Structure formats: structure tokens, C-alpha cells
Amino acid sequence: MAGTVRLILAFHNHQPVGNFDGIFEQSYQESYLPFLNVLENYPDIPFALHTSGSLLEWLEVAHPEYIDRLRGMVARNQIEIVGGAFYEPILSNIPRRDRIGQITSYTEHLEALFQTSVRGMWVPERVWEQSFAGDISQAGIRYTILDDHHFKTAGLSQDELHGYYVTEDEGRLLSILPGSETLRYLIPFQNPEDTIEYLRDIADRFENPIVVFGDDGEKFGSWPDTHKHVYEDRWLERFLLALRNNESWLKVTTPSETLDHVKPLGTYYLPDCSYREMTEWALPPGPQAELHRLTHQERDADPDWKRLISFSSGGFWRNFRVKYSESNEMYARAIEISARVAELEANDSLDSEQRQGLNDARRCLYRAQCNCSFWHGAFGGLYLPHLRNAVYSNLIKADSLLESIVRTEDRWVDVITGDLNLDARQEVRLSNQRLIAMFSPACGGHMYELDLRTCHTNLLSTLNRRPEAYHERIFAHAARLREASARGIELQDEVGCIHDLIRFKQPDLDRKIAYDKWPRKSLVDHFMRHDTSFEEFHRGEGLLGDFATSTYEASVRRSENEVALEMRGRGNLLGHDIEIRKFVVISSDRPNELLIQYQLHGLPQGMQLHFGCEFNFATMPGGASDRYFYGASGTQLGMLDSQQQLENCSRIGLVDEWQGLDVSLECSIDASVWAFPIETISQSESGFELVHQSVVVLPHWHFMASQSGSWGVDLRLVLDTSLARARELARAGEHRSRNTVESASKEAANT
Length: 751
Prior knowledge:
13-stranded antiparallel beta sheet, alpha+beta, ten-stranded mixed beta sheet, 28 strands, CATH 2.70.98.10, 4 domains, 7-stranded beta/alpha barrel
């Protein structure tokens, strides 16, 4: 006869800031709503529910009836609401002040919305560092759920994890319940009876054990093929019936009930960790593939291997910022905004309007800290442009709100120098009332961020193509597909576990994998062989020297209405020491323009030279008729995912009508222009896919140096956001009109 086991079911529902409204709705219809429909019919089975703030805000507007139903289930004690950091940031990716701020503000929101007390929180992606215990406790939280993997890497065995532990930081206590990795793979993929047998074995062997399932709610309908499995094939109902049929020894309960009635197993401190798969993804591609092989293949060859590998902690989450420089750029920008918010928070002289602006800026900062855009694992994450764009959109909004608090003039220009991207080198930021441009002299003199305040867009939210461990799986699967096609056989998708999904959303993806040899930013300088072809440059070939990544020196000149940045780089070209000088000017009088001048010195005389300046433009997707190139005459040249090879070109433009954005590049000397899309191959929930990241625009010139060994060209980058601004003003007018009508209606009703 089995003893009694406590089973805690905790579900985590999340959609990232910036995800498409249609994805929110699809997930609601496929997962959140049908899940609730089933659970309401089993009021005797309680569970814990965490909904991230970004999803909850959407639900409150799009489906208030869902919120009402949750509130009713909370009132009858079927649901325990689990809190967390408001917009689901990785806690190690934000400052301590923002950790506490996000947790406390979300607790207040949840308690007001559901009329309940919030005692626990969901740690985003279960990324843990021991100091978090003190921050979480200070924010008023009493427990959280982590994976059993955390405890095993700390030296505990599986048999020591059928309960919960207390941990501590600076005298602040926090209870931690270990979530079962075994249950994460059983539920909902295996038969309900398998879960019952697993729990029965634990009940037989341990006294009053506690077992915790904590995982994504999207597994119940939104992951590939799970909606049919969970609902149409009635997996969830069969699972709940199995729990009910075994209630004599299986007590389904909540975290708070457990903590109130069961004492902890003891005190324990956990190392920096996350769930096992995340610790693999945080590694560089080579070590990642090796750890995966060791974990999944070698364990069957040695009976001691499984025990040995449990002590492997894998990678450290913060190294995603090393693995992906683009993640670090967003992080550094958010750190800077957070510091400015904190500085203004301490200013006692702010009036009520300025305080409101500061609160709005803080909320934008919190939204920008949503974790999904900062890393990449089984799904798109960092590889999804719309998620990165959402980060920058909120950061740019926050920046502009902060500027409106500290500035009184309508027109202004400013320059800041310092370590802006946390690489121990000096960067330069030029800004005015419309633009923010950030430069890295130490890395090729690149412009690595270009923000448009009107449409809250960073035109340089690019992403480099780089090796990923799963690319080998793409090559292998493509070979199997071609072999099967040659034999007249159709391969079935390999579904099983979501992490092992192999499905191509476009054909021949293996032939489109490429890796970039320099950052895909702007003002990237290239000397090329005289006969370098478009195809060679497209492959990253045909270049001379290393100016694309060399170190430039920088100096700044400032007047009342403009700032000029000069960057100087020296290098070797075919045995000659040459110098590139590039000047960038930003002004308050022409706030939508960057004036760029190139001066090349020390060039060899009598030699045909080939020089180009590479620009990259992101946030403007290809493949749509309202997103296109145009030439000097204004004639459309093709969509933004097309390849362009233009001659005698004085101007090339890129338009995104949907965003209301027109970017044009003018040249004082007619140029040849090459343009082509940068596309990555990455994983998503539904398979491997091709993703448009940015557009390369390379004006380049063939010339011979003057007798002085010099050559130069002037460029003018015009960023026309007038249509976007008109739309924003129209929306603001509609909002004011709607508020006026609502206020009048309320006043009339009160009268």
C-alpha cells in the first residue's frame, strides 16, 4: 500500500514583450483558454499559476472574461497565484534595484487584481544566483520553484529532493521547492499512467514526500502537435481523472499549503545554475555540442556516468552576453537607462508631471528587460527581430521621456563619451531631439546603434550570422531528406521532445547557412581587390587589409548647434601605410540627418583602388511590397529582400511604409551600390526557419588616388520619419478625443 505523496502542479504562462498580437491570441485559443475550460471541471484539483506581466496586461484588455474566471477560481482556492518580476527578466540581467522593483510592483498588481496574497514567485528561466535569495525575500516573497538540476549540481542526490529547502542571503530567508525534471518530460508527453507509476514508486519509498511539476503552460496546446494530444485526444482529462482516482494516497496541493503544513528538509545553498538545457545553450557551440553528446550518448556506456554528469553545471547564463554581442548591446543600453532613472528618482525637486514621466520611463525600462530577446536556445529568442525591436523601442521611449524631464529647449544636440557597451573601451554617443547615434572607435569606427525617437526604432538592431551547435543537425537532416527523396521516400517529422524537433519551414536551409566575418553594423570600411565581384563580397571574400575591425582613434568638436566626431584609422594596404579619416556630424538644425565624410590619405599613386563603406539597416523586413528600395529618381527597385547591383548611383533609399520610415543615402560622387539581405537560420517552436535580419547597403568606388595620395567622398544619411510622426500625432489626437468623451460621459452620469 503506497504512502501519501504531495504533488504540486505549477504552470507558467508567458508571452514576450513585442510578440505579435496574433501569437498572443493563438496561444490563448490553443492553450490558456482550453486549459482553463478543463480545469474548471475539476475544482477538487488545485494548482499554482504564474502568468507573466506582459501576458497578463494583454489578457486584461483582450480577454477580461478570462481574468474574471481566474478570479473566481482563486476565490474558491483552486488556484494559487504565483508572482514574479513583472515583465519576466532574467534576474542576473538587471540591476538589484530593478529586481526588487519589478517583483514588488507585480505583487501589488496581482494582489489588487485577484484579491489574494502572493507568497511565491516564478524565477524566469530558473536562472539562479545565490544573491537573488536576499533580493527576492526583500521584495516580500517567501518561496520559489527551481529545478532539481540546481540541487544536484550542489551535491544532493535525487533521493534528497522529495521536499523543500530553506536558503539564505544576508540573513534573509527563502524557501525553494525543487521541480522534477522527470515530470517535465513525462507531462504531457507520456501516458498519465506513467506519471502515476512514477509517483507511486516515490510514495512507497519515502515518508510524506513532496514532488513538484513546474513548467510552461504552452506545453498544453501551443507547442507543436500538443493541442490535439492534450485536448482532442483528452490527455489532460485522463491525467486529471488519474489524479482523482488515486486521491487516497496522492494529494494534489499548492506550494503555500505545503509550506504551511510541512517543515523544510533543511538549509541549503545553490550554485549559479538554470535548468539543464539552458546550461547547455549558454555554452559556445563546440563545448555545447560536446556536453550534449556526453549527456545523451556516453551515459549508457558507463554505469557511473549518469552520477558523474550530474555534477556538471554547464554554462553560466551571463555568458549569453559574450556569446551574442547583440545581447550585450541591449543589456548595456538598459543598464544606462536604469542608472538615469535611479538618479532622477533621488531628485526631490521634480514636480508631479516630471514624476509621472519618470514612472512611465521606468515602466518602459522594465518592459525592455523582458528576457526572451537576450538569449537563444530551443526557440527563436534573440534571433527574432521583432523581439529585439521591442527591447529597443521601450529603451528609446524611456530615453526620450528622461530627456523631456531634464531638458527645457525643443532643439538641442549633445555628446557623451565613455564605456557605453561595457567592453573597457571608449564609445561615443551623439544625440539630438530626433536621433541617437552610438559609435565604437575601438571596433572599426562602427556606428553600432542608430535610434529614431519618432518611431522608437533602432535601425542597427542587426544580428550577425554565427555558428550554432544545431547547424550540424540541419546538415545531417538535409542529407537524410535528399537521400529519401532520391529513393522516393517521404520522411516524417521527428517530433518527440520539443528540443529535438527537426522540421524545415523552407527547403534547402543547409545551403543558406553562412557566417559573418565582421559585425554587420554601419560605417564598416572595406578595401577590396579591384576585380572583387558582388558574389565574392556576398560570401565575405575579396577584401584587402583589416580596416573592418581595426582600432580607430576618436576626437569630438562641439558648437552650440552641432557636434562633429572624427575617427582616424591606420593600416596596411598592399604594402602601403594608409589612413582613413571619417567625420560624422549631427546638428539640432537638421535633426533627421547624419553628415558623413571620408578622407583617405597615404594611398599608392597610379594604382586602381576599390573602397566601400558598408551600412546595415534592420527593423525593415523584406518580402513585402510596401518595403522597397528606390533610386535617385524615386523609382522603386525591388523589395528589401532582393539583391541590388547598381551603377552610377548618387542616391539609394529604403522605405518601410508600414513603419512610416524612409531612409536615404546620398553620395557626393556617384557610386556602385551592392545591396542584399542578411538572413539567419535558427530554431523556432515549429522548426528551423530562415529569418530576415537586416539589409546590407554598400556604396563602393573604383578610383585612382590624386598626386597627394588622397581621395574623399561625402555621404548624407537622411532619416525621414515624417509619416510616422504624423501617425503618432493622429493617434495622440484620437486618444485625447476619446478621453474627453469618456470624461464628459462620466460627468454627465454623475450629474
